[in-house]
């Protein structure tokens, strides 16, 4: 569990303005800390399937927030992935040729 002081430090480090406590950057930082702590717990307790399920839910929530941040503010996305040393997602953008192929294949013959 994240202590109050750790949480306060993370919020201070990643907040976008003085009263910010719930932006995507802050949520991603807090979720990353929880993921680290749960991963350490699961290394000690490999049969704890309830915690494993919770970890998977947290990882997916962070993934969705990262994709949102990448779509909305690429600069903030790059900054937070660098600070937290997270893998970057590839942008899922179809090229013009790929869009034409998809449209062509969708037509009935």
TrEMBL record:
Pfam families tied to this protein: Ribosomal_S15
Keywords, ordered alphabetically: Ribonucleoprotein, Ribosomal protein, RNA-binding, rRNA-binding
Top-level lineage group: Bacteria
Molecular functions (GO terms): rRNA binding; structural constituent of ribosome
Keyword Ribonucleoprotein: yes
A single Gene Ontology CC term: cytosolic small ribosomal subunit
CDD domains the record matches: Ribosomal_S15p_S13e (cd00353)
GO terms of biological process kind: translation
InterPro entries found in the cross-reference section: Ribosomal_uS15 (IPR000589), Ribosomal_uS15_bac-type (IPR005290), uS15_NS1_RNA-bd_sf (IPR009068)
Function: One of the primary rRNA binding proteins, it binds directly to 16S rRNA where it helps nucleate assembly of the platform of the 30S subunit by binding and bridging several RNA helices of the 16S rRNA.
Similarity comment text for this entry: Belongs to the universal ribosomal protein uS15 family.
Record-linked NCBIfam families: S15_bact
Known partners and oligomeric status: Part of the 30S ribosomal subunit. Forms a bridge to the 50S subunit in the 70S ribosome, contacting the 23S rRNA.
Protein name (Swiss-Prot/TrEMBL): Small ribosomal subunit protein uS15
Organism name: Candidatus Portnoybacteria bacterium CG_4_10_14_0_2_um_filter_39_11
């Amino acid at each position: 569990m994240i202590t109050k002081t750790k949480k306060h430090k993370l919020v201070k480090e990643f907040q976008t303005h003085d009263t910010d406590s719930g932006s995507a950057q802050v949520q991603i930082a807090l979720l990353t800390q929880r993921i680290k702590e749960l991963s350490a717990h699961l290394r000690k307790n490999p049969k704890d399937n309830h915690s494993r399920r919770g970890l998977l839910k947290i990882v997916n929530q962070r993934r969705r927030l990262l994709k949102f941040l990448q779509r909305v503010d690429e600069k903030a996305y790059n900054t937070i992935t660098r600070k937290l040393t997270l893998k970057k997602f590839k942008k899922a953008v179809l090229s013009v040729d790929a869009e034409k192929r998809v449209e062509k294949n969708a037509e009935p013959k």
